[in-house]
């Protein structure tokens, strides 16, 4: 079999799908994207196609190594997201060619279902209680919300109290009947992370995500030494070579590689296994579309240390399209009691409505993340 064509579709809300065609008529789909830099990743995908066209898609490991090591400059968000989407599509092709779901190619199921969690509250946590109530009604009991709004490197008690108050209201309303992660979203700088985490401890969040930016990862073990709360990170780390450093340094209780940013299924299965060796949980990051989610689920179903899965149904970013809008087999993503079942169709197990993808790709806008500024006009982390 030979790869014959790569086609990318930038799509609302902020996604990109990749279709890889072969000379035997088998087609694979993947989701290479960096939110806010879709065109950069698209260019990277097409740069890789110079080599990929004419190659045997079955040789995923060799193609991955060529894409990674074949360039003198490697790694980083753009290139690793391009590799990720191509890798997902290659696994989709292999599964379809052999008539089995990707998880079978990776050794089979290690569990029967995986817990999903859902975002509430938006960029600036609001209507959180109502949001949780609605999602509980459809079976969710685990949620994630932004831990705070902008927070200065050194900030005041009112900001800390506002963040704590949101969390106190959640516990007041639901007690220990629900769990929630707090995503500091890289908005908090090291001095305030220590303060904020300490004030949040009494409310027992399930985890604290990105308490500081990935480029400040040396603080993860220091923050972990001061708190019993599990610390999670990984969405802005892009290969085993980045994850090995945080695993060696310690401090992370949960790794959150993104299947569309960290080199795809081939790389994230290895990252999952590295985490297991350090007794660290896996919770793949996934605020994206159905192909990214499917790739996450296949890794979850073969990784014993997978604990819960992020998914974007109802996420505040999905303006203009919802998680399953482009999927024909929506029922395969159905959840029961807040848990996903395995995707059992061949390949990734996602049937894409290509006609709709082509049509909607005409309306794709260039999503950009908000640019936040402090009152003094300096740039704040979003
Ligand atoms: O945990 C999450 O889902 C992420 O922090 C998410 O909010 C960001 O990755 C966002 O998609 C960036 O544009
Ligand atoms: Mg996050």
Q: Could you walk me through the main structural features you see in this protein, from its secondary elements to its overall organization?
A:
- It is a single chain.
- This protein is α/β, with parallel strands linked by helices and 382 residues long.
- It has helices at 38-52, 60-69, 77-98, 102-105, 128-136, 157-174, 190-200, 219-226, 240-249, 264-277, 290-300, 354-361, and strands spanning 3-11, 15-22, 27-30, 114-119, 142-146, 179-183, 207-209, 231-233, 254-255, 281-282, 309-310, 335-336, 339-340, 372-373, 379-380.
- The protein has two domains: 3-100, Enolase-like, N-terminal domain (Enolase-like, domain 1, 2-Layer Sandwich); 104-345, TIM Barrel (Alpha-Beta Barrel).
- Strands 4, 5, 6, 7, 8, 9, 10, 11, 12 and 13 form a ten-stranded mixed beta sheet that branches. Strands 1-2-3 form a three-stranded antiparallel beta sheet, with helices on both faces.
- The radius of gyration is 20 Å and the shape is globular.
- The termini are far apart.
- This is D-galactonate dehydratase.
- It catalyses: D-galactonate = 2-dehydro-3-deoxy-D-galactonate + H2O.
- One of its GO terms (biological process) is D-galactonate catabolic process.
């Amino acid at each position: 079999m030979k790869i014959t064509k790569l086609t990318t579709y930038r799509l609302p809300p902020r996604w990109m799908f990749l279709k890889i065609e072969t000379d035997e008529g088998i087609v694979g789909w993947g989701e290479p994207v960096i939110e806010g830099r879709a065109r950069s990743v698209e260019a990277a995908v097409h740069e890789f196609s110079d080599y990929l066209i004419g190659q045997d898609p079955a040789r995923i490991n060799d193609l991955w190594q060529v894409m990674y090591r074949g360039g003198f400059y490697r790694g980083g968000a753009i290139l690793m997201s391009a590799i990720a989407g191509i890798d997902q599509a290659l696994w989709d092709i292999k599964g379809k060619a052999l008539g089995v779901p990707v998880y079978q190619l990776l050794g089979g199921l290690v569990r029967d279902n995986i817990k999903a969690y859902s975002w509430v509250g938006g960029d600036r946590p609001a209507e959180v209680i109502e949001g949780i109530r609605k999602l509980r009604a459809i079976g969710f009991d685990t949620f994630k919300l932004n831990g705070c709004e902008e927070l200065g490197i050194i900030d005041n008690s009112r900001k800390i109290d506002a963040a704590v108050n949101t969390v106190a209201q959640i516990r007041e309303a639901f007690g220990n009947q629900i769990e929630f992660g707090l995503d500091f979203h890289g908005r908090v700088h090291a001095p305030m992370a220590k303060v904020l985490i300490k004030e949040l401890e009494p409310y027992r969040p399930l985890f604290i995500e990105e308490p500081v930016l990935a480029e400040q990862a040396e603080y993860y073990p220091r923050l972990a030494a001061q708190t019993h709360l599990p610390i999670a990170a990984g969405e802005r780390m892009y290969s085993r070579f980045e994850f090995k450093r945080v695993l060696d340094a310690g401090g992370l209780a949960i790794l959150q590689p993104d299947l569309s940013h960290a080199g795809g299924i081939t790389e994230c299965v290895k990252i999952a296994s590295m985490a297991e060796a350090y007794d660290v949980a896996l919770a793949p990051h996934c605020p994206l579309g159905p192909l990214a989610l499917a790739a996450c689920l296949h890794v979850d179903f073969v990784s014993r240390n997978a604990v819960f899965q992020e998914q974007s149904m109802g996420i505040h970013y999905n303006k203009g399209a919802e998680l399953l809008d482009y999927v024909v087999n929506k029922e395969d993503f159905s959840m029961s009691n807040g848990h996903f079942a395995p995707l059992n169709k061949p390949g990734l197990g996602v049937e894409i409505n290509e006609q709709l993808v082509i049509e909607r790709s005409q309306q794709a806008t260039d999503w950009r993340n908000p640019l936040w500024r402090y009152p003094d006009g300096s740039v704040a982390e979003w």
